Amino acid sequence: MKSSRANKWQKSRPSQPAKPVFGGPRRQPGKNEAYITGWNGVRECLASPHVKVVQAWIDPRKLSREDYERIRPYSRQIEELKGKETPYGELSQGIGALVRLPEWDDLDDLLDGLEAKGVAPLLVALDQVEDPMNLGQILRTCEGAGVHGLLVPKHRAIHLNQTVAQVSQGAFAWVPLIEVTNLRHTLDSAKQRGLWVIGTAAGEGSRPWYQVDFRENSLLVMGAEGKGLRRLTVESCDFLVELPMAGRLDSLNVGAATAAVLYEAVRQRHSATD
């Protein structure tokens, strides 16, 4: 005999799709808000203390019982739909959420906190990166690699928006994304705080990326594909590293290059603790 809980679960998963419950034009998220879809992204937003979930929607027919149970602690913020449409768009993987984007401390506060914990900072800065897809991918890589903060210029750069948040798969909820007014001054200030500033640029004077000791306080600077690092940015770096290319192409996408360098840092830092 099935339990009442199992019966309730079956009732919440109708065999025939229902019509959307919302009509009319879609709403646009407000300032500093984003509409996130998909299980990974919404789950991280619900779990993060840095993100305010304004409202979440689920289609129980699309969620496994395990996923359904995992979001039950957040039931006050969740509305079950009879269809696949919300005021802000469709669901993906049976879930979507309107969230308020996080606000982070400045770089000095971040470094003060790491110093108090005795943690060697691992930071990334972006120079001339303007593609939101790249920024979202880099955020996701940074979260996986344990990066403590991602720095982006306030001008001539992409910032956190709905596309970036969606592509990051929830990483934006955990990795501090800090806007800086002047990247060169920020790099110089970081050096005064004891960080090694490592730029990525191919050519004479660059060393292989694996010859850098990322166990030290490190700030990795990545430039956009094609544009690379600006001259003043290069001048602010302690040294430069490169990723040798074995094929016909002369460069990697900035997201792929960032992942390659950061996971060398992960390897070194894990080896140091083994």
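Next protein, fold it too.
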Amino acid sequence: MLPTLSDLTLNGVAPQIAVAGAGMLIMLIDALLRKGSRRWAAYLALLGLAVALARVVGSPLSAEPSLDGTLARDGLGTAFALVLIVASALSVLVAMDYLRREEHEKAEYYALILFATAGGLAMATANDLVAVFIGLEVLSISLYILSAFFKADPASREAALKYLLLGAFASAFFLYGIVLLYGATGTMRLAEMGTAIRLAGTPADPLVWGGVALIFVGLGFKLALVPFHSWAPDVYQGAPTSVTAFMSVVSKVAAFSALVRLLVVVLAPAAALTSTLLALLAVLTMTVGNILALAQDEVKRLLAYSSIAQAGYILVAAVAGGETGAAAVLFYLLGYAFTNLGAFSVVLAWSRRGEGRLPFSDLAGLGFRRPWTAAALSLFLLSLTGIPLTVGFVGKLYLFGAAVRAGWTWLAIVAVLNTVVSAFYYLRLVVVMYMRESELPSALQRPGLALGVALVVCVAAVIILGLVPGAAL
């Protein structure tokens, strides 16, 4: 039976409409305005995100899904949506001064940010595997284009091509996994899928496990989990730095939102087997990411491998499962968004025009020549390490505590050991900034207003959430 108009309630899809609508409005206005600054596009993007945020916060939770059951309106989706919108707004602020400095201030950049955010919101609230796939593709295609935004830069073009080719394979795996799960359960709805698997008893159907494995491959690519991580360092380094900052946070939040919902709603009857598989992936991802990061001498590439390791930490709480695990994943992703975007903000402030690389040697002595931004970067690095009084410490405490309470003590111990390893390369940057002198003259500019606002917000969030974590819970 076809859905009636009353079935197609739009309450749950209002944030996606606000964000995507703002993106389309930017494209329309840009086509009509031939000349002049495109700073207005950034303000319009922020307005669209503000409307979406107000809609998410102001709408009551409901067990009734939207769009004939396609999108959920529950607390899980709402929380992930909040993290996505906040991260996207910070990404717009981070990009404003950078794009002007690089003479690439174009309206379509902000439109693509909004389209990617709309795709992420669809993934976060999806109650249907088709909706997850559509959201994934909207997010992915927007990121492919953004990666090649500096089209005159060979590194940007190469990064986009590599991301596109590998991303297309990952999407194909994900889609084939959907087909297998549909063949095994006869439905695309996540809740109905979970019911079908539970009623079948021990889910030994090869179609189910084949479908789950292929979907994990697709999401593993977006999360840069080992062994699906090879694209991340090259793409992070070659893409425009503002795009790398956005990609490193938003794609992770969106993919983890889909993964957590799959684990909670669909695969709960088979938690023992899926948890073992994810635990192995978590160990591989943490360990490989941290070991490879030790050998890096360029900041963007270091943050790429750091991002891989961070995904492994978050996976620890996903293994734990349940409400405690989901809450730990959410809190850590919120803290990670502020911390990672803050770190990339400093990289943007310090990188020279036309140069996508920031070698460690360029940071020598900046602790005294740029004391405020150096202190901010030090704070973000300490938070990524998990030093007390930062949001990173509290987040790791929640992640590893959830694993211990769920009986995964050995996994928590491995994660703690990996955290110790990560301290070497994070603190190495702090040592370079404060304990080495540069032989090169300083050619660094001070952060612009928008970038400064983003930095202040990130610093405040890292400190406040580290001291008063209950403010976000």
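About the second fold: Confidence is low (pLDDT under 50) at residues 4-8.
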